[in-house]
Amino acid sequence: MKPDLLLPASPIVRPDKDRFLNEENPFEGMMSRFDRAAELLDLEPGIYKVLRHPEKQIITSVPVMLDSGEVEVFTGIRVLYNTSRGPAKGGIRFDLNVSLDEVTALAAWMTWKCAVVNIPFGGAKGGVICDPLKMSIGELERLTRRYTTSIIQTLGPDSDVPAPDVNTNERVMAWIMDTYSMRVGHTVTSVVTGKPVEMGGSLGRREATGRGCMLVTKEALAHLGMPMKGTSVVIQGFGNVGSVAAQLLQKEGCKIIGISDRTGGFLNAKGIDVDDAIAYVQEHRSLEGYKKGDAVTNEQLLTTQVDVLLPAALENVITTKNAAQIKAKVICEGANGPTTAAADAILDAKGIFVIPDILANAGGVTVSYFEWVQDRGGYFWTEKRVNESLQEIMERSFHAVLDLSKQHKVNMRTAAYMLAISRVATVHRLRGIYA
User: Interior CA angle at 394 toward 393 and 400, to 5°?
Assistant: First the structure.
């Protein structure tokens, strides 16, 4: 899959990609994988340089009047990594751990993710450094609207389309859409995705990321000659992605033997009733105190003897510290960046089949694309059509990555990066550099 070069290639001078100065720095990890794929593609130096840098990084102050009458100033970030294939697409998170490095890495991942499933978006990400659990609904609304106003010059259906992420949801997207619409003077539903269905959201959007994880896991098991029925699964993270993936995998015949959230995990070798666990979380707001399994830590859960491990929580949960103890045969990365770059070689040496995040969790952005299309056309699909279209794209993308993996004798992550980078690079060659 060596690309056609418009200019003679000269050697690329790259950073030492084998050194991990900070294993848990998400941007360094993403770039080390990018470098490996770029080298295998024999990417020409000019395009290499372009793809290694984000197009735009915004850091803005977000002053908010608190309920107490005091003013607090938060820091907001929005990164547009690459928009050569279409409008920037990426979520907004509210979290104390938001940083420029993290947001930039996530924006790059979104770029590759959209390219892997071949939808016409570029990559973006945003966030506000705050603790939303300590803020009232009114404070969150004022924070959202002020943050939206501070980045509004980048927003728009043709330029930058946000979505929910960590600690944001449909309501936050509704506030963003309303703020943008009030500024331009008319309702613009397609400026965000992940909205309530009543105001232009898509059926099937909430379940899309978890459904995508189920679909690629099913394809991976078929490739490996493992039946769905009776396959044991452990899921770290029991939020929207993890709980939906657990529910759908169980319906396909898998046995969910372990689940967890931020409060800890539970194992039950006989299988966990996922619907019962979801009902418990809805009542108690977490898995804490759940009685239908043996309590374990999240660290213990990751190293359980199991067929499929599905990390669906946060970044950097599989590292050089625990990768050698992972006993799963398949890892489906439901979260963004759950495995550090330095841990990849350890998992490879153990023969673990990893479905990388930029493929595994692309169901969410795929249905976000469907939502954007529906909003722009003013015609809305049935949930059946949404799910069937998602299945077609996820299965096709899985096999495109698998075929490339076999062709170049590389793991699925490297193959996914090669496929994504080649698609983005091709558009840059065709468009050229605007002078």
Answer: 90
Nearest-angstrom CA–CA distance, 220 and 412: 11
Where does CATH 3.40.50.10860 sit in the chain?
Answer: 54-187
Which amino acid is located at 426 in the chain?
T
With beta carbons less than 8 A apart as the criterion, state whether 121 and 365 touch. Answer: yes
**pLDDT for 177-229, tens place per residue?**
999 999 999 999 999 999 999 999 999 999 999 999 999 999 999 999 999 99
Which tokens hold the place of 291? 């009685």
Q: Indicate the pairing of strand 308-311 with strand 56-65.
A: unpaired
Q: Active-site positions?
A: 125
**pLDDT band at 18; cut points 50, 70, 90:** very low
Kindly state the DSSP code that residue 187 receives in the 8-state scheme: -
| pLDDT of 21 | 53
Q: What is the pLDDT of residue 261?
A: 94
Note the pLDDT tens digit of each residue in 148-171.
999 999 999 999 999 999 899 999
What does the DSSP assignment read for 308-377?
EEEE-S-S--B-TTTGGG---SEEE--SSS-B-HHHHHHHHHTT-EEE-HHHHTTHHHHHHHHHHHHHHH
Alpha helices in 185-324 (DSSP H): 208-224, 240-251, 274-284, 298-302
Q: Tokens representing 202?
A: 């898509």
Distances 352 to 227, 257, 413 between C-alpha atoms, Å: 17, 19, 12
Q: What is d(CA 352, CA 76) in angstroms, rounded to the nearest whole number?
A: 38
Cβ atoms of 312 and 236 within 8 Å: the answer is: yes
Q: Which CATH number fits domain 208-360: 3.50.50.60, 3.40.640.10, 3.40.50.720, 3.30.530.20?
A: 3.40.50.720
CA distances from 168 to 6, 8, 92, 275, 328 (A): 43, 47, 7, 24, 31
- Dihedral sign from CA coordinates of 266, 271, 274, 277: negative
Choose which CATH entry (3.40.50.300, 3.40.50.10860, 3.40.190.10, 3.90.550.10) describes domain 54-187. Answer: 3.40.50.10860
C-alpha distance from residue 223 to each of 246, 353, 388 (Å): 21, 10, 21
Report d(CA 216, CA 194) in Å as an integer. 22
pLDDT confidence of residue 16: 43
Distance of CA 369 to the CA centre of its chain: 14
Domain span(s) for CATH 3.40.50.720 in the chain:
208-360
Q: What confidence tens digit (pLDDT) does each residue in 414-429 have?
A: 999 999 999 999 999 9
Spatial separation of the C-alpha atoms in residues 25 and 212, rounded to whole Å = 27
